[in-house]
Amino acid sequence: MALTAGRKIRVLVVDDSLLARKLIIDGLNQSPNIEVVGYAVNAADAKNKVKQLSPDVMTLDVQMPGLTGMEFLKQLLPEHSLPVVLCSSLNLGVFDALHAGAVDFVHKPDQTHSNEAFIATLTQKVQIAAHARVQGFAAAPERAAANASRLPAVPPLGTAVTENIIIGLGASTGGTEATLEVMKRLPEDIPGMLITQHMPTGFTQMYAERLNKLCRMEVREAKDGDEIRRGLALIAPADLQMRVAPVTLGKYRVSCRPDEKVSGHRPSVDALFYSMAENVKCRMIGIIMTGMGQDGAHGLLEMRKKGAYTIGQDKESSVVYGMPGVANDIGAVMTQASCKDIAGVLLRHLRNK
């Protein structure tokens, strides 16, 4: 059901906890743009309510009795192309559910995440999800790992190609799986990569561990002072700004610090890209992928002005064509490609230089 101007976003809340349901329902109903049209207490109840109520967006608890969030989405999304925002504690199941087609996720309240912050973030992500492009159901994670090992062999690039070059990649909504689509098609000796993905505290380490299992190169959460080197991809830690520091003794390193937000985010893609434009004196490549807003667009433009090769995800394959769309509109993107083709574009560029 397409949203028309002035119509409220109809939301179905799925959670087996009475307290959590009340918090979410009361919180979302405070928004003038959102109407909670119903709730469900488990997957079976939710399937019936989706048919009865035709919501625009569904919020889904990752951990419920019976079907997991991933198993539920495997059944739901082939029949109903419904944007889903996950509500999760610090749990690996959130990545399984994102892999199954959920649009985004919000960290449930705990000692460090207040009810107010949770509702504010959930409200924002529900409004984004209402306009998101729902991706088709992907293979289950265990099959994805097996499929990754059966991908066509990617020959090493060789030292001559991978030395003296740094790759930066930024993404937000829809980016966890989009980034994986790129990374699993790259060789183990890829030039040093820096990845900024908007994500709550605690989840970036789990995300890095997941990519490390599914990809050929080493992937881990960045630490302040980490060296940037070939065969290593560093994920910006949640709630810290990851930047490239000026070269010291011939080596580039990252700084990861609790600096001010940039473009409304910490970590920020713009913070990474601006630092690359300012401090990287060797060759560099910038990639901007799916996400709401414009974080990274202007930083990518600065990279291009400094001679970087820049790639933007195309509209058709983006869950939200915000960040790459703005980047393309302002002239920051040299080449647009689909999520599945970005790796090929990157490798051709590296091999032809």
Chain-wise SSE layout:
Blueprint: E1 9-14, H1 18-29, E2 34-40, H2 43-53, E3 57-61, H3 69-76, E4 84-88, H4 93-99, E5 104-107, H5 115-129, H6 141-149, H7 159-162, E6 165-171, H8 175-183, E7 192-197, H9 203-214, E8 218-221, E9 232-235, E10 241-244, E11 254-257, H10 269-279, E12 283-288, H11 297-305, E13 309-313, H12 323-329, E14 335-337, H13 342-352
Describe it.
The protein folds into 2 domains: 9-129, Response regulator (Rossmann fold, 3-Layer(aba) Sandwich); 158-352, 3-Layer(aba) Sandwich (Rossmann fold). The chain contains 13 helices and 14 strands. The protein has helices spanning 18-29, 43-53, 69-76, 93-99, 115-129, 141-149, 159-162, 175-183, 203-214, 269-279, 297-305, 323-329, 342-352, and strands at residues 9-14, 34-40, 57-61, 84-88, 104-107, 165-171, 192-197, 218-221, 232-235, 241-244, 254-257, 283-288, 309-313, 335-337. The strands form 3 sheets. It has a 7-stranded parallel beta sheet, sandwiched between helices. A 5-stranded parallel beta sheet has the order 2-1-3-4-5, with helices on both faces. A two-stranded antiparallel ribbon has the order 10-11. α11 links the parallel β12 and β13 (309-313). α1 (18-29) crosses α5 (115-129), α3 (69-76) runs parallel beside α4 and α11 (297-305) packs across α12. The protein is elongated and about 60 Å long.
Key structural traits:
Rossmann fold, 35% helix, alpha/beta, 353 residues, single chain, elongated, 7-stranded parallel β-sheet, 5-stranded parallel β-sheet
